Amino acid sequence: MSWNNILVEKDGHTAVLTVNRPQVLNALNAETLLEIDKAVDELAADPAVRVIIITGAGEKAFVAGADIAFMSKLTPLEARDFARLGQRVLGKIENLPKPVIAAVNGYALGGGCELAMACDIRVASEKAKFGQPEVNLGLIAGFGGTQRLTRLVNPGIAKEILFTGDMIDAETARRIGLVNHVVPAEELMAFCKSLASRIASRGPVAVRLTKEAVNEGLEMDLEKALAHEADLFGLVFATSDREEGISAFLAKRQPQFQGK
Ligand code: HXC
């Protein structure tokens, strides 16, 4: 498959999806979102792929937001459709049956910060900067920022970021819980690939159902969420991965999971 705005590479059980519009700091227009949508569907369907890393091309940016030149021509209804498109694609990433790691290599602003927040795990380079600068443009966040940021970090901190449009550096993002790790820029991809391959070596169905238990549980009260967890715990007993994992432990050998 050839893409105009993204790159997709596979390496073992890990796929790397790179937003590839460095001339505009990887800003997201509708075409780019549609390519991400399609690529993510293909990666979800590929049994060899167990973990996906999303990053941005070039040294400067992960994604510097929705494409402002593209948005400048939108009518109100088109703007609503564009927000809905972004929300749909990011929602797909959030609920993909495989873990997704954001390797945040530079600016993650507006729609870029929102893309990173739709991923399961965020790792930032020391050079990364995060922000929701929409208010500087007289806009509000529209790809989920008002909701995901408020759920990921303390609502007061989220509101300050959303109301001021100010950028925060990678270390601040780590301190408030927006990113898990901050690493030197030149180590970012190796760090993310190593994390991805650790996750990929675990039982793929178990990882998938863990993601489902966490994501769906967040939308439920604790009692229902625990019942859901118990159901999924029962479901993994139907897998050959469970047999392999337990047999390997008892035989004191490394498990070879098939994802079945
Ligand atoms: C379109 C963008 C862009 C964007 C950068 N560029 N961000 N183009 N959309 N979001 C373009 C610039 O116009 C410029 O093109 C080139 O990329 C390099 O950017 P510079 O501004 O020259 O770089 P620098 O001075 O280093 O500043 C970097 C920056 C700044 C701080 C990241 O570019 C910036 O503030 N960008 C906008 C960030 C932003 O407001 N994002 C939120 C967008 S709203 P030329 O042709 O001049 O070389 C949003 C809404 C989401 O995301 C929800 C929608 C429903």
Q: Could you explain the architecture of this structure?
A:
- With about 260 residues, this protein is of the alpha/beta class.
- The chain has two domains: about 5-200, Alpha-Beta Complex (2-enoyl-CoA Hydratase, Chain A, domain 1); about 205-250, Lyase 2-enoyl-coa Hydratase, Chain  A, domain 2, CATH 1.10.12.10.
- Helices cover about 50% and strands about 15% of the residues.
- It contains eleven helices and ten strands.
- It has helices at about 30-45, 70, 75-95, 110-120, 145-150, 155-165, 170-175, 190-200, 205-220, 220-235, 240-250; strands at about 5-10, 15-20, 50-55, 60-65, 100-105, 105-110, 120-125, 130, 170, 180-185.
- The strands form two sheets. Strands 1-2-3-5-7-10 form a six-stranded mixed beta sheet, sandwiched between helices.
- Strand 2 (about 15-20), helix 1 and strand 3 form a beta-alpha-beta unit.
- The longest helix is centred in the first third of the chain and has 19 residues, at about 75-95.
- The radius of gyration is 19 Å and the shape is globular.
- About 40% of the residues are buried.
- The structure holds hexanoyl-coenzyme A (HXC).
